[in-house]
Design goal:
The complex is a heterotrimer of chains A (about 500), B (about 475) and C (about 100). Chain A is an alpha/beta fold and about 500 residues long. Chain A is about 40% helix and about 15% strand. Chain A is built from 16 helices and eleven strands. Chain A is globular and about 65 Å long. Chain B is an alpha+beta fold and about 475 residues long. Chain B folds into three domains: about 280 residues, no CATH class; about 110 residues, no CATH class; about 60 residues, Arc Repressor Mutant, subunit A (Orthogonal Bundle), CATH 1.10.10. Chain B contains 15 helices and 16 strands. In chain B, the strands form four sheets. Chain B has a nine-stranded mixed beta sheet with strand order 2-6-7-10-1-11-12-13-14. Chain B has a three-stranded antiparallel beta sheet with strand order 5-4-15, with no helix packed on it. In chain B, strand 12, helix 3 and strand 13 form a beta-alpha-beta unit. The longest helix of chain B has 20 residues. Chain C is mainly alpha-helical and about 100 residues long. Chain C has a domain of about 40 residues: Histone, subunit A (Orthogonal Bundle), CATH 1.10.20. Chain C starts with 6 loop residues before the first helix and ends in a 6-residue tail after the last strand. The chains are: A alpha/beta (about 500), B alpha+beta (about 475), C mainly alpha (about 100). Chains A and C meet through helix 10, helix 11, helix 12, helix 13 and helix 14 of A and helix 1 and helix 2 of C.
Amino acid sequence: MAAYGDLLEERIPDLRRRLETGELAPEALLEAALERIAAVEDRIESFIALDPDAARRRAAALSEKRRRGEALGALYGIPAAVKDNIAVAGLPMTAGSRMLEGFLPPDDAVVTERLLAADAVIVGKANLDEFAMGGSTETSAYRTTKNPWHPDRVPGGSSGGSAAAVAAREVWYAIGTDSGGSIRQPASFTGIVGFKPTYGRIPRTGVVAFASSFDTVGVLARTVEEAAIVYDALHGFHPSDTTSLPRDREPVAPTLGRDVRGLKVAVPTFWLVGLHPDVRARTEEALRVLEGLGAIVEPVDMPHLAYAEAAYTILTMGEAASNLARFDGLRYGRRFSDARDLAALYAETRARGFGREVKRRVLLGTYFLSAGRYEDMYVRAQKVRTLIRRDFERVFADYDLVAGPTVPTPAFPLSERLSDPVAMYQSDRLTSPANLAGLPAVSVPAGFSAEGLPIGLQLVGDVAEDALVLQAAYAYQAATEHHRRRPAL
Amino acid sequence: MAYETVVGLEVHVELATKTKLFCSCRTDFGDEPNTNTCPICLAYPGTLPVLNEAAVALALKAALALNCEITRETKFDRKHYFYPDLPKAYQVSQFDRPLGRNGYVDIEVDGEKKRIRIERLHLEEDAGKLIHTPGGTLVDFNRGGVPLIEIVTAPDIRSGKEAAAFLTELRAILAYAGVSDVRMEEGSLRCDANVSVRPVGETRFGTKTEIKNMNSIGSVERAIEYEAARQMEVLAQGGTIVQETRRYDEARRVTVGMRAKETSADYRYFPDPDLVAFTIPEAWIEEIRESLPELPDARRKRYVEEFGLSSYDARVLTQEKAVGDFFEAAVAHGGDVKAIANWMMVEVLGYLNKEQKSIDAVPMTPAHLSRLVRLIEDGTISGRIAKEIFPEVIATGADPEALVREKGLVQIQDAALLEAVVKRVLEANPKSVADYLAGKEKALGHLVGQVMKETKGKANPGLANALLKKALEARRGAGGA
Amino acid sequence: MAERLTEETVQKIADAAAIALTDEERQTILKELQEILDFVDVLRAVPVDGVEPTVHPVPLAIFMREDEPERRHDREALLARAPEAEGGFIRVPRVLGD
C-alpha cells in the first residue's frame, strides 16, 4: 500500500513515460488501482461492475505488447472506469436500470474501441443515475455512490460513479456522458476536471441514448492535461454515428500552455445570481485569477439563459420517451411480467423495469410529444433552443469564452432532492445551456466551500473550440493549487 | 339514388436494395428467420441508424418516375407505436417532408384515359413479420428495417377496375425503373384502400373505411367493388358508414370489420435526432433522372408509332419490361414485327402464364423466336409445325432451325412428291371428291386436311391446295360427271 | 397557465407510454408532473414567432452508407439475449385482433 500510495498521486504523462521505459509495468499500476478500490470502494461505491481478472489479463497482454517492441498507445496501461451506459464487450451494461440487468452488449462502443486502441485498461463500469437521468447518481437501481469528500453528500450525477472513482483515486480517469451537465456537475462536486466536448466530437455509438441531440461523451480526470490526453485519443468522426464530427485540426494536449493573455471572457450576469455564497465567492476569485493571467473578463447579458432549464426539460424528456420506448422485455433485457396479454406485458415490464425518475421523464416526454401539446410545448422549446444558441453566437462574436460557476451550490446531502424533481433539475441550470447549444465546456476545480466541499469553475467555448476551452482551463489550473488537494478517505 | 365510389390507395413498395435502410443486414426474402438481423435492426441500446444511400437513390428514382416534385430539404421523423414487430417502438418514416410530392400516373380503362394524382411518396423502414401460433406469436425481424416507399394517391379512383389499372401501371413503372421487384405475393408491393361512396354530384367525401389484406391486384379490385357495394347498400337502407379498418377475406370475397379505427391514434411524430436533416443536391436528382429507362407509357407510344401495333397489343407487350425487351430483341433479329408480336402475345405469354414462369427463366432466346417466325415466312415450315415444335423450343432452348431439320419437318415443296399423295387421298375419299364436283367447295378443305395428315403436316398447305384443285378439275374435265 | 392535469389525462399518457400505474402512483405522479409542467410554463413568455426550431445544436454534414451487406452477428448469440426465443424466432404473448 505504501509503495502504491505514491503511484496514485502520479499524473498520466509521468506514468506513461515510466510504463514506456519499462520502469513500471502495467500490471503493477493496475494492482495499485485494484488495491485502492478494495480499500475505499465499500465506502464510495463508484462501480456497478468490476472485473479485476479481465483487467489483469489486459495488463499482462499490454506488457507482452511492449516486450514485442510494438508501438504503445497514448493511454498505455493506465486504469480507467467507464460509465455503465457505455458498452464494453465482455462486461454487463445496465445503464443503472433493472430493465437491463444482466444485459451483455455484443459490441464495444466506439469510445471503448478507441480507449482499447490507445492501450487503456478498463477496470469496471461506473455507477450512474438510471439511464443518465438525474443529478445525484441516486436514481441508480443498484447502489448509491457517495461523495469522496463527504460521506453524506451526493457525488453529483449522472456520471457520479465516474467522478467519485477519479476523485477517490480508484482510477486515473473515467469516461462519462453529459446531456445537461452530467460530467461537469459531478466533476464540480468532487473536485476534479470534467470535460464535455462539442456535441458529436466523440461518437455515441454504443452509448445508451437518453436524449440523442444532447448526449455527449466526455472525460473526467484529475487535471486538464490528463483530460486533454484522453480526449485526443477519443474524438473524431465514426461512420456508425452520422451525428459525429471530424477530428480537431491537431491534438489538443500538445497545445496546452498557450498564453491566455488578451483572451476575452464573458460572464453572463444571470449565472451570478441565486448562487450559494461560497460558490459566488470562489467564482469571483477564479475570474480574478483569469484576469491576473491577462484575460479580459466582462459581464454580458444573455436574455434567454433564464429559459434554458425549461427548454432542456421538455426537449430531453421528449427524446427520452422516444429513445426508451424500445425497452419492452421482448428482444433483450428483462421481462417483468408473466402476462399473456401483450399490452399488459409491456405496461408491467416498463412499470417494474424503470425507476421512478425515468418513469416521470418518460411520461412527461410522452405528454410533450402528444397531439395538441407538441407544437405548443415541444416545438416552442426547440425554438427557445435556437434563441439560446443565438445568445451564444452573439457573445462569441466578441468573446472567446463564456465563464461562470458550474453548479449554483456545492454537493447537496444524499436524498435531499430525490423527491423534489424541480429542485434537482435546477441544479443543471448553469450546465444545460452548453448542451442546448452543443458547445464544448469544462468544469475545473476552483476551491472549496466553508464546509470543505469542492466548487467548480465552468468555461464554455464556441462550437468546435474544444482546444481553446482546454487551453484556458489549463492556464487557470497552472495558476491554482485546488486540484492538488485530495479527499481524506 | 345513384352513388359513386371514391378510392384512395396507400401502396407500400420494398426497394430493391441489397441491405436495409439503416443497417447492413441483407434484405433477401425467404431466408431462415432472424438470420438477417443485427443489434441495429433489433434496436439494441446504443445502436444508431446509418442511412443507406442506395435506398434514397431508389426512392428518388421512384419519385421521378411517378412525376413527383422532389422535396430537396428533407428529413426523417419517428412514428411511435408499441407492437412486437416494431423493435424501437417507433418507425423511422417521413412526416412533413416526404421525398416526393404531387406526382401522377396515367391509366386507361375501357379506352378512356385518366390521371391519378399521387399526393406523396416517402421513405420509411418496414416492420418485422409476426407468425401467430396457438402457443404465442413468433417474430421474425428479417424484414424489419427493409427500405419501403409509401405512395399515397389522391382520392381520384372511382372503381375497383381503375384501382387495378393504377396498380398494374404503377407496378410496371416501378419495375421498369428498377426500383423494386414489385411482387405482391412476396409482399414487396402491398396495398391498402380507403373506400367511400357518395351520391353522384356530391363534392364532399363520404365516411371512408380502410381495406387491408389484399394480396393481388385482382383482390384489390374485388375488395373495392365489394366494399363500395356494401356501403351503398348500408346507405340505401338508411344506415350510416362507420369509419373502421376492414379486412378482405379472399376466400369468401367479402370485407370484414376489424376494429373501430381509433380516431385518437397519436403517433407522436417528431424529427429523429439520430439522423441529420439534409439537402438533396440538384446534380444528384439530375443524375437519377437521366438514369431512368424508357417507361411503359413511352414504350407503348413507340410500339404504336414505330411498329404499327394496336394500342392494346402495345399495352400487353409493355406490361412487363422483360417481355418488351424480349420482343424488341426478337424484332432486331429479323422477321415480321406483327407476326413476332402475335407469337409473343399468344404462345410466349400463354406458356409463361401456364407455367407460372417469368420470361427471364425460359431458355428460349429472342433469336430463336425470330428464327421460328422467319422459318414460317420463308415457307420452310408451316404455322402448324411451328406451333408443334414451340413447346420444345421455349422449354429447352433448342434452335428451331436445327430442330426442324433433325426431325425432318421441312415442308414438302416438291410437287412431284405431293402429287402421289394427292392421288392416294382422292382415291381414298370418293365421297369428298363427289361432293366437290357437285359444287360443294367446302369438301376441298377436308381433302387438304387429309393431305396434311398423310404428310404429318409437312406438306406446304398452299401447294397441296393447288395440286388437289388441279387434279379435281382434271377429273371434272374428263367428264367424270 | 400550464394545463391542469387530471388522473384521466395521466392515465392516457401512461397508456401511450405503456407504463402501468397503480392508483396511488397515479396520484403522486399527477402531482409531480403538474409541478414540472408549471415549471416549464415560463417558456410561454418567450416570443418565438418566426424562429426556426433547432433539432441538432451544431451543423452536421449528411453521411450515407454504401449498400454493401455485412454480417457480424450470429443469430443464436443475439437470440440468446431474448427472454423467450424458439426455433430462430423471438417469442411474445399471442397478439390478438388481426
